[in-house]
Amino acid sequence: MANFLLSYTSYLIPILLSGGEAMEAKTNASNILIVDDEIGPRESLRMVLKPNYNVYTVENGYAAIQMIQQVEMDVLTLDLKMPGMNGIETLKEIRMISPDVMVIIITGYGTLKTAIEAIRYGVFDYIPKPFNVPEILSIIDKSIQRRKLNLKVKEVLGNCFNQQLLKEPVANDSLLPEERKAVSDCKWDEINLSDTQSCLEFAKVLAYTLEEKDPYTSGHSERVCYYSDFISKRLSLSPKERSELQIASYLHDIGKIGISNRFINKKGTLTSTDWAVIKQHTKKSIELLVPLNLSSSIISYIQHHHERYDGTGYPDGLAGEKIPLGARIIAISDSYDSMTSDRPYRKPLTNGDAKSELLKNAGKQFDPKLVALFLDVLKEMEEVFLVKDHLRVPAVAH
Known about the structure:
Blueprint: H1 2-17, E1 31-35, H2 39-49, E2 54-58, H3 61-70, E3 75-78, H4 87-97, E4 102-107, H5 112-120, E5 123-128, H6 133-160, H7 164-167, H8 177-184, H9 196-211, H10 220-234, H11 239-251, H12 261-264, H13 272-278, H14 281-289, H15 296-303, H16 325-339, H17 351-360, H18 368-384
Parallel strand pairs: 1-2, 1-3, 3-4, 4-5
Helix pairs in contact: 1-3, 3-4, 6-9, 9-11, 10-11, 10-16, 10-18, 11-15, 15-16
């Protein structure tokens, strides 16, 4: 009797949470959960997706959390402005329960702050209401493919060293030499990296996988890529150059998996020894990435993103325009995101204070022309988010 009640409850809860409709599950179809307090958009999206997917609907964040606990979801579409628990709060809770579910924000309300916060929690895309049917179908399909790649990357990484990387917070302590070698020796050929687009998707997934367990770095590479891509658009870089910059942005800190958090998150002043250890991460990044056969441009952007415009940076003390353009762009994006993010050793700076720091260090640490361009880009981004009716914050590249 107890087993029957348990089975019946497992059957009944998804029906109740999805509005009382007993849904006949499609074999081999992906599960999608729509979370929206407005019945019109919720039902419209359900009807669009119903022919091809197993679709569940709920009207608030609390119900979404209950549903996620009962049914393994592949994709979640989430409204931001809901009564009770809002979208961002819901997203935080869901990430703790289901880190691999792909999340798509669909909202008529948004700000630059909520977009960046959404990136922090691994949102796949962020699109406006009313949604465009061909667009939403395309994004849903891409998100499902991304999830498959996510799981494959985790499987490959897990096989490298008995899931050490996935069980512990990233860089909780430095990886042993044999564990770093294990990452390098992973069977990356099991993942199709035959073209730039595949490589970009892989870079996103690898960065997310490595960062997701650390609350202080989660989403950092995604945001660095987000800012860098805005700069690259203003510079009118070619599609190939943009893609290479995006890949480098996602992978710029991969070498930190070999550096202990005792150094990376140390409170107080770093000693010369501390700095010497931390500076090794650019070298470690290149060592880890050699097996992927990335382009020389990508490698140079990663290797030199800590050079300073005045020549006092590392690893090679390059100065001015001798520093690769992509590295100069990543340096600004990386520093801005670090300054505006919470760290165990300090509170985040306000946007205004972070901008002032960039200006103060223009010509010293940063390319002054790129700083001026980036500040202009930030202003433009902030203005875009003031237009609530037609909000569009595209994912950097699919």
